[in-house]
Amino acid sequence: MSIGLHANHRLPATIQLINLFMLACLLSWVGIFTRPIGAFSLFWPVNAILLGLMLRKPGYATPVGWSAMYLGMIAADLTTGEGWVLALWLNICNMALIATGYSVMLLLPQSQRRMGKPQAILYMFTACLLGAAVAATLSALRNDNLYNNTAMVTWVSWFSEQFSTNLLILPVILAAPRLKQLLRLQINWQWRTGMPLLALLCSLAFSVYIGGPGAIAFPIPALLWCAVRYQLFTVTLLTLLTGLTEIISISANLMLYETSGPHVTVIDTLMSARLGIAMLVMGPLILSSSLVVNRKLLRRLEHSANYDFLTGALGRSALTRKAKELLEHKYQAKEAVSLLLIDIDHFKLINDTHGHVIGDHVLSAFSHIMRRELRHDQLFGRLGGEEFAIMMPRALAAQAMALGEYLRRRIENADLNPNGKEPLRITISIGVASLAMNEEKSLEQLMSMADIALYRAKSQGRNRVESFNMISGSQLNYTMFK
Ligand SMILES: Nc1nc2c(ncn2[C@@H]2O[C@H](COP(=O)(O)OP(=O)(O)OP(=O)(O)O)[C@@H](O)[C@H]2O)c(=O)[nH]1
């Protein structure tokens, strides 16, 4: 086992250690300064954040990393006037929570630790539950020296606070997008997008206003609506917002809980409410992560329905559908459009000489080059075998010919040999057909025109581009398609 931090991180190991130490210290300070004097912490986010960090950056989870974290927490306690013994013991409880949670989450494959599957939420629930139970047990063992409470009250208080806090914060950290993804994020805001959020804020305000034991459940429908409409990370932020608002409202006695009766005290109410809040965020989180799985599956299904498996180009039916939509748009916008039919020359010879596997590779490498050269609005698809097509919006015959000629040369000069020994070159023949701005033809007619041009390119010796519109005598052919 490595005792240093892993070398694959960009920052040097010592700087990472100092970072970890400082982070643990800083987070503990925040927790200490927001803790009412002589009382249990209302909200102790340190453990959840550090646990999340360890899971997101496994390189930190080394004996040295764990020690830096522990020392950072102790430093925070000592610099705020805590005694040595207490500082050591309290932070053993904190570290025990992080280590227990970490061990449970390690049972999940790394790819699932970012909450993208419902079972990851269940593992996280177990991690928070066991982690809080272990920490609460350790703190209750030294109860006499720490708090003026019975061991049971100390246990329940630690457990309920840590269980709920971790369950609210950990999903945010695990589901947070990486900085690169965050910068690429495009927010497509419409007034309807904000409705679930508005409903959540209203139901939260309503639950604080009405109060009573049932009020913590008021935001559930709005949270479920948010889970259906928003991304998982947004849902984790909203469950955190909901939980925090309710915990703070209850502790400030804003939600008018019943506190009379022989066994009921304010701290009992808060403990019970915390556990309830922890349970209620599970539903929206599980729904949201199930939808992540569904969306991924749908995207995969859509992709395999629309794209050719071997070449990554559009499949024939998707190409036809999109080309028809493009023609429809052309008629309305009165724009030109061109179609290029492309056929690899003597492809049978490649199969016969090099075998089918190399043939497949050539098809895929050819398609890769084409996709890299074409713009996003130009449709590229495989019609079948070694025949492909490009639909060019807003392009007259001359522009389509120029593109065809460029692609022909690009392919002619490319080496498609996967083994990199002998160069393997191919050539292509291209037939172009174009429709001017006010011309109307069906896709089938446009295809037939391009096919005539392609036939001519083949019969004139291959490795060339021919345009139906420029073929001498095409006026004669052209009448066929009027
Ligand atoms: N490796 C591989 N070969 C394919 C695939 N689809 C079709 N082919 C082969 O492509 C070849 C096409 O041959 P032909 O239609 O005679 O055309 P060609 O040899 O390219 O000749 P010209 O088009 O006249 O230049 C056939 O041998 C098919 O078996 C595929 O997915 N993979």
TrEMBL record:
List the SMART domains.
Answer: GGDEF
Q: In which pathway does it act?
A: Purine metabolism; 3',5'-cyclic di-GMP biosynthesis
Pfam short name (any one): GGDEF
Q: Which CDD domains match?
A: GGDEF
Q: What is its EC number?
A: 2.7.7.65
Q: Which InterPro entries match?
A: Diguanylate_Cyclase, GGDEF_dom, Nucleotide_cyclase, Rev_trsase/Diguanyl_cyclase
Span-the-membrane segments of this chain are: 12-31, 37-55, 84-108, 120-141, 153-176, 197-220, 232-254, 275-293
Alphabetically list the UniProt keywords.
Answer: Membrane, Transmembrane, Transmembrane helix
Q: Give yes or no: UniProt keyword Transmembrane.
A: yes
Which positions fall inside the GGDEF domain? Answer: 335-470
Q: A GO molecular-function term, please?
A: diguanylate cyclase activity
**GO-annotated biological processes:** cell adhesion involved in single-species biofilm formation; negative regulation of bacterial-type flagellum-dependent cell motility
Cofactor(s) recorded in Swiss-Prot or TrEMBL: Mg(2+)
List the catalysed reactions.
2 GTP = 3',3'-c-di-GMP + 2 diphosphate
Entry's Gene Ontology cellular component terms = plasma membrane
Spell out the coiled coil positions from the record.
Answer: none
Write the protein's name. diguanylate cyclase
> What high-level taxonomic lineage is stated for the organism?
Bacteria, Pseudomonadati, Pseudomonadota, Gammaproteobacteria, Enterobacterales
